[in-house]
Amino acid sequence: MCCVALPFSRSAGFAVDKAGGEPCANLLGDFRCGIHGELRERGFAGCTVFDCFGAGQKVTQDTFGGRDWRGEPQVAQSMFAVFGVMRQLHELLWYLHGALGVAAAEAVHDDLRSLLAEVEGLTRGAADDLAGLDVAEVRGRVNVLLLRVSALARARFGRTRDHRGADLVGARLKGARLRGANLRGALLIAADLRGADLRDADLIGADLRDADLRGADLTGSLFVTQAQVNAAKGDGATRVPAAVRRPAHW
Questions:
Q1: pLDDT in tens, 143-174
Q2: Alpha-carbon distances of 226 from 28, 241, 245, rounded to whole Å
Q3: Total Cβ atoms within 10 A of residue 167
Q4: What share of the chain is helix, strand, coil (3-state, %, to 5)?
Q5: pTM (2 decimals)?
Q6: Rounded distance, CA 104 to CA 153, Å?
Q7: What's the angle, vertex CA 22, arms to CA 20 and CA 23, rounded to 5?
């Protein structure tokens, strides 16, 4: 689904332009990628830092019961529209599951479980219901809880640095002491974070493209996704949260 429904423009992350709904030229007849093993070398690094959180599989196998846009072109536009919604819901599920693993936020675990069940229920809805869903409203309610989780988890560190939404593009933060910091939505593109202490920092939505994390410690960092670490630079000394894998290109 990602290789068809989503558009991309020729840039550092993509070698060519592609419109939404147009199959990528590298997509094979069996729906596999023809250059998956050499995406970075062939100019498609952007593909390696995108994660649909399993939304594509959910749409094709569950919502549309195994149908596909090639075999039944008439359902293509509906599938692509639903995929955009499903991807957001699955991202929210990732954050909610992660929040339930934060022991310091036990006070809101019941609320998290309740909202988790609600979002999971939404993902099982019919195509028309999903296409018409007010995702922004759902995201808003989830965000309220995630903010509470973040505050509870970081409270033990006292007053910490608040860089929420900050423009830190290319910032020199080598060895920075950012434990428990609020870095929600911060722009850390190409920032020098070598050896930085990012333990227990809130990194939800932080842009880590080309950020240098060599030797940095992200143990216990909150809401870190696989796509975020895939987009950064690291090495054998970089410590990542338990929920994500060390990228092969490090």
A1: 999 999 999 999 999 888 899 999 999 999 99
A2: 25, 10, 7
A3: 11
A4: 40, 10, 50
A5: 0.90
A6: 5
A7: 125
